Amino acid sequence: MNRVVITGMGVISPVGNDLASFWESISQGICGIGYITRFDTADFKVKIAAEVKGFDPAAYMEPGEARRTDPYTHYAIAAAQQAMDDSGLMGQVAPERLGVYIGSGIGGLQTLTNECQKFILTGPRKVSPLMIPMMIGNIAAGSIAIRFQAQGPCLPSVTACATSSNTIGEAYRAIRHGYADAVLAGGSEAAILPLAVAGFANCMALSTRNDPLDSSIPFDIRRDGFVMGEGAGMLVLEEYEHAKTRGANIYAEIKGYGHTCDAFHITAPHPEGRGAVAAIRGALEEAGGLGGKAVYINAHGTSTPLNDRTETMAIKQALGEQANEAYVSSSKSMIGHMLGAAGAAEAIISVLALNHQLVPPTIGLKEPDPECDLNYVPGRAVNAPLELVLSTSLGFGGHNACLAFAKE
Questions:
Q1: 46 and 210 in contact (C-beta within 8 Å)?
Q2: Using CA atoms, how far apart are residues 103 and 156, in angstroms rounded to an integer?
Q3: Is the same domain home to 109 and 173?
Q4: Which residue, 185, 285, 332, 392, has fewest beta-carbon neighbours within 10 Å?
Q5: Looking at 245, 277, 308, which one is the last position of a domain?
Q6: Domains in the chain, number
Q7: Catalytic pick from 31, 161, 372, 402?
Q8: What is the DSSP letter of 236?
C-alpha cells in the first residue's frame, strides 16, 4: 500500500481567506460569526451566520468566468489555486495521474434561487442556459479539473456535513491503492441565503440565540443549534515517494480513514453513536491504534443538543480510557458550520495543529454540559506534544467520517 501525505492547503473562510490568516484567527480564538449582511433578516428567527468577508473572485478568475459560475465554485477555485500554489505540484505530475475529489453539500443554491425567481416573475424563456452547469454539485470539481488539466479520477462527494471529509478520505484511498499520484481534495459551500436559512431554521437545526459571540457554543449546556458558515477548504494529497522525489514540503501523513452510516434517521444521530464509534475505530485501526500517543480530536461539535452529547459518547467508546486524556475541541465555535466544506476546513486545522503543536480552543464554552465531560479546551488554545490528530464529521442522513493524521 502507498503512503499518502499532504503537500498543499488552501482555504476561504469566515476568519480568513488564506492559510496564514485562517490559522492566526483559529489559534487566537477569533470568532467569525456576525449578523447576516446578505439579506434583510427582519422576518427571520435566525439573524446571524459566519459569512466569508472581503473575498474578491477577481483575484482568482476573469470577470467572465466569475459571471458564469456560482459563488460556491468561486470559493472552491480560490482555495484550490491556493493549495496547488502551496504544493508546487503543477508540472510535477502527469495529468492522467492527477485527480480531483471536491464536493459540496448543497451546490449552487444562489444560482438556483436566482433562476427560480426569474422563472416565477418572467417565465421559462428568461431562465439562464447556464443555470444547470452553474448549480450542479459536481461543477466545482469539473471546473477545477479543467483549470489544472487533472485527467485522472474526478469524484465529487455529497454526504451533507461529512462531504469533504469523505472527499479527502476517498482521495486517500485512491492514492493508497495506486489509482493516482496526487489528488486535490476538499469541499465548498455558499448557502447563506434566505431559502437555506429559512429551511435550516424551520427544521430546528439552527441556533436562535442571535448573539454572535454566544450562539455557536459546542458542548455548553445552553446550546440550541448550529450557526451556518460558508467557504472552502482544499488539500493536495500526494503519494509519499512522489512527494519526496520532487522535494515537496510535507505537512503531515494521512494515517487512517473510517467511513460508516448510522442507517437510523435522516437528521438525528444514532442515540448510541454506533456509526460514529465505528468510523473513529476504523480510522484508528488503520493508523495503528492509540498506543499511548498524545491525541487531539477536532470534533464535529455542531453545538446542537443531540450531536455534542452523542459525539462525546462516541469518542469515549472509541478511545476507551484514553478519551479522558485526549484534547477535544470544536472549530465551529469560531467559523460556524461550513456544511459541505466543514470537513476540509477542519482537516486543515487538524494538520496545522499537528504542525504547530497547538490545540485550538472551543470558544464560548462557559457552562459545560454534565453529559459532555471531556477536555474541550475552553476559551484559549493550549500547547501540547501532539502525535496523532483525528478529525470527525457527522452528517444528515447518518453519514460518519473520521480522518487520522500524524507527522511523516
A1: yes
A2: 4
A3: yes
A4: 285
A5: 245
A6: 2
A7: 161
A8: E
Q: Is residue 154 part of a domain?
A: yes
Let me know: does 183 contact 169? Beta carbons within 8 Å: no
Q: Could you list the residue range(s) of the whole structural domain that residue 275 is in? A: 255-406
How many Cα neighbours within 13 Å face the side chain of 238?
30
Q: Which of 337, 372, 399, 402 is catalytic?
A: 337
Task: Please pick, among 259, 300, 399, 402, the residue that the annotation labels catalytic.
Answer: 300
Q: Is 71 helix (H, G, I), strand (E, B) or coil?
A: helix
Does 161 participate in catalysis according to the annotation? yes
Are 38 and 151 in a shared domain? yes
Do 104 and 150 sit in the same domain of this protein?
Answer: yes
Query: Is 265 noted as a catalytic residue in this protein?
Result: no
203 is annotated as an active-site residue? no
Rounded to two decimals, the pTM is: 0.98
Q: In whole angstroms, what is the distance from residue 395 CA to residue 268 CA?
A: 9
Do residues 10 and 145 both lie within one domain?
Answer: yes
Contact between 71 and 143 under an 8 Å Cβ cutoff? The reply is no
Residue 382: Cβ within 10 Å count? 15
